[in-house]
Amino acid sequence: MVSRLGIGSSYGASTSVIEEAVERYVNFLYWGTVRRPAFGRAIRNLARRNRDGVVLTVQSYSRIPALISPSVEVALRRAGLDYFDILLLGMRNERPGPAYIDAFERLREQGKVRFLALSTHNRPLLRSLFDEYREGKSPYDIFMLRYNAVHRGAERDAFPYVPIRPQPGMIAYTATRWGDLLDPGKMPAGEPSPTAGDCYRFVLHQPSVDLVLCGP
């Protein structure tokens, strides 16, 4: 079972903090935008103890499909892993071409990744991909999009169109709007600023959201 919260590597949390989070049942780890060494050490340590107890995602921003496999191979070696659960194609505001899907399929056939995810700010593209998923034609198992109390366009343009049966995995990120929602100076006079927990709860109140990512 996947936790409702996930942790990304961008903000430099220490190895011990990541390991403690997993002990507290946060089992989705996202080695994403910045592959920090401390995060890689945590992945290595946790996988040695209980590989089946963590869901590990590696991200690729590569705009050259042929570079995806070498990037994943490097990440596997650095983390001491045989495979990642999820390969995420990051920041894709246009539909990735067939060569990207072929790169994923080769990695999956080699047992190095299991599922394919896509992150985008292009909500009309998401609607098109949802239609394909509903028809059983989508290569993607999981979708990731921005959603928070300020950026709420997904309530209109994405969430109403998420397939129900079967339903893809849905990840939301930027719950705190990169910290802006926690800044007392940006609140109306006399209004307390929300906590990070408030921001995550706001995102998770959406029935379509399975997981909110912290520190992507």
Task: Describe this protein's structure.
- The longest helix is centred in the first third of the chain and has 14 residues, at 37-50.
- The protein has helices spanning 15-23, 37-50, 68-79, 98-109, 123-134, 154-157, 196-204, and strands at residues 5-8, 28-31, 55-60, 84-89, 113-119, 142-146, 169-173, 211-214.
- It has one domain (5-214): NADP-dependent oxidoreductase domain (TIM Barrel).
- 38% of the residues are buried.
- It starts with a strand and ends with a strand.
- The chain is an alpha/beta fold.
- InterPro entries: NAD(P)_OxRdtase_dom_sf, NADP_OxRdtase_dom.
- This is NADP-dependent oxidoreductase domain-containing protein.
- It comes from marine metagenome.
Distance between the termini: 21 Å
Low-confidence stretches: none
Q: Helical element count? A: 7
Q: Main beta sheet, described?
A: 8 strands, parallel, barrel
CATH architecture: Alpha-Beta Barrel
CATH fold topology: TIM Barrel
Classify the helix fraction into a percent range. Answer: 25-40%
User: What percentage of the residues does DSSP assign to strands (E)?
Assistant: 15-25%
Return the CATH class.
Answer: Alpha Beta
- Tell me the domain tally: 1
- Helix-and-strand structural type: alpha/beta
Number of strands: 8
The chain-level mean pLDDT equals: 95
Give me the Rg, rounded: 17 Å
Question: At the fourth CATH level, what is the homologous superfamily?
Answer: NADP-dependent oxidoreductase domain
Morphology call? globular
Order of helices and strands: EHEHEHEHEHEHEHE
Task: Strand order, main sheet: write it out.
Answer: 1-2-3-4-5-6-7-8
Pfam family, one: Aldo_ket_red
Domain NADP-dependent oxidoreductase: 38-162
InterPro entries: NAD(P)_OxRdtase_dom_sf, NADP_OxRdtase_dom
Protein name: NADP-dependent oxidoreductase domain-containing protein
